[in-house]
Amino acid sequence: MNPDTVLKVIQIVLTAEPAVVSAIHNLLTGTGTATDLVVLKADALAWQAIADHAAAQIALLKPPTPATLAR
After folding, report:
1. DSSP annotation string for the chain
2. Model pTM greater than 0.70?
3. Per the structure, how many domains does the chain have?
4. Which H helix or E strand runs over 16?
């Protein structure tokens, strides 16, 4: 990944996920609390749900292969 892409991803995260960025900052600087961990865990669950949904949608687009047809 080139530096411009990394910078754009960081900018997106900073804009879309300020609570997550704040929680990460707090934890990295030693001022984090249990609330920061809850924020990160909730965000991770939300992103996992999005990833699972995307994977299911992609699976719908894949044509069957001969191996799957033989089942």
Report:
1. --HHHHHHHHHHHHHH-HHHHHHHHHHHTT---HHHHHHHHHHHHHHHHHHHHHHHHHHHHSPPPHHHHT-
2. no
3. 1
4. helix 3-16
Residue type, 19: A
Q: Let me know if residue 45 belongs to a domain.
A: yes
Model confidence over 13-55: pLDDT tens digits? Answer: 888 888 998 999 999 999 999 999 999 999 999 989 999 999 9
19, 39 Cβ separation under 8 angstroms: yes
Query: What is the predicted pLDDT for the residue at 70?
Result: 64
Whether the predicted pLDDT of 1 surpasses 80:
no
**CA distance linking residue 13 with residue 28, whole number of Å:** 17
Residues of the domain holding 26 = 3-62
